[in-house]
Amino acid sequence: MNRSIRAPLAFGLCLLTTTLSAAEALRISGAWVREGPPNATVLAGYMRIENRTASEAIVVSADSPQFQRVEIHRTEVQDGIARMLPQEHLTIPAGAVLELQPGGLHLMLMQPAQWLQSGAQVEIELRLEGGGRQQVAAEVRPAANSSGTGHSPHQHH
Amino acid sequence: MCSLRSRHFVQGNALGFWLVALTALVAGALLASLLLKPPDPPELSQGTTRLEPPRILQPFELVDHRGAAFDMQRLQGRWTYLFFGYTHCPDVCPTTLSSLNQVARNIDGLPGDSEPQYVFVSIDPERDTPEQLAKFVPYFNPAFLGVTGAPDAIEAVTRQLSVAYLKVEQDRPDGYLMDHTAAVLLIDPRARLHALMSLPFDPAGLAQDFAKLQRYYEATL
Fold first, then answer.
1. How many beta-carbon pairs under 8 angstroms link A with B?
2. Max alpha carbon distance in chain B (Å)?
3. What is the pLDDT of residue A121?
4. Ordered mean pLDDT values, 10 residues apiece, chain B (221 residues)
5. Are A34 and B139 in contact (CB under 8 A)?
6. ipTM of this complex prediction, to 2 decimal places
7. Where are the alpha helices (DSSP H) in chain B?
């Protein structure tokens, strides 16, 4: 879309509802959830978040009707020890891209209502600072895709 | 006549004879040392470290996901990949288990018939029962084995392998996390800690490392 048209359009939509403004602010691609064993109590969700606006975007929480609870986490490996650090929020600077990927930032999806197999869709809602909300549809993919040598999660860029 | 002549020959060339003998001896010794010289240690991937000498382990008593005892005997006679983690782990543990699945596929493709075993040891025995592991670990590869045990038994085995773990309480019920060593360990057929591999894992590189370590191990037995 032409940028010169897009900016006033975005501004106009902003005036209508905050939900629309949020949807306009972030472009999310390649969202996926790693399939887990039938008794997995936690899964991880990954995606690429692009902030196309001229101001910082902050994701303060996430939610999914298919999970009891969703948290934002970051895996850190230091001195050979892996730890998961809960994050208060995700900050995407103006014009920047934030990657949620294996071994780094991810959504920790807890207590699935049922076993999610490859091909299923996970509906995730990101809540933004300022009250905006953004819906994300993440595809469940096989575990083998996560290690980097198989098919990498598809990305549009 | 004949014997006299040969005696004379021997006496006259005694020095020469000993010189030849000595030269042959030295040459032989040199050749032998060349032939018997141990091969150079293998060149391994960046994240792979071989222990020299391998670390001897003390007996331990764990249980596998089928309910059978998992002790020192289970490590004898074949190579074993050991990985430590917990089933309530969304990112690192599933990523490593699927990497190990790819390592297994790569090793299957190598010449030779020695098949290592792959063992996931829980550092969260409170939640990871054999039944829980039975539904979790084989999902990544039907041949993978899940192992758990009494908390002090887990501690006894991890301590000698320098594997660290720590329970981190969260502000929600049943929601603690575990910090844990993310390395994969390789145990040799004499049940000794032989090598360790750190993140990030390259399955093809790890399979190559395995082939080299195994070749070197057999050449230096």
1. 102
2. 109
3. 97
4. 51 75 83 75 94 96 98 95 94 92 88 84 96 96 97 95 92 82 95 93 92 92 84
5. no
6. 0.75
7. 2-12, 14-36, 92-108, 130-140, 151-160, 203-219
3-state class percentages of chain B: helix first, strand second, coil last, to nearest 5: 40, 25, 35
Q: Which two tokens stand for residue B1?
A: 């006549």
CATH class of the structural domain A26-145: mainly beta
State the average pLDDT over residues A109-136.
95
Instruction: Name the region of B122 (left: φ>0; alpha: ψ -120 to 50; beta: rest).
Output: beta
- Nearest Cα neighbor of B207 from B119, B101, B120 is B101
pLDDT at A151: 37
| Cβ contact, residue pair A36, B183, below 8 Å | no
**Is the Cα torsion angle B199, B185, A86, A152 positive or negative in sign?**
positive
In 3D, which of B145, B83, B154, B139 has the Cα closest to residue B117? B145
* Shortest alpha-carbon distance between residue B193 and chain A (Å): 17
**Could you state, in order of their start, the residue ranges of all structural domains in chain A?**
26-145
Calculate how close chain B gets to A107, using CA atoms only, in Å. 9
Token look-up 């996430």 returns: A62
pTM beyond cutoff 0.90 = no
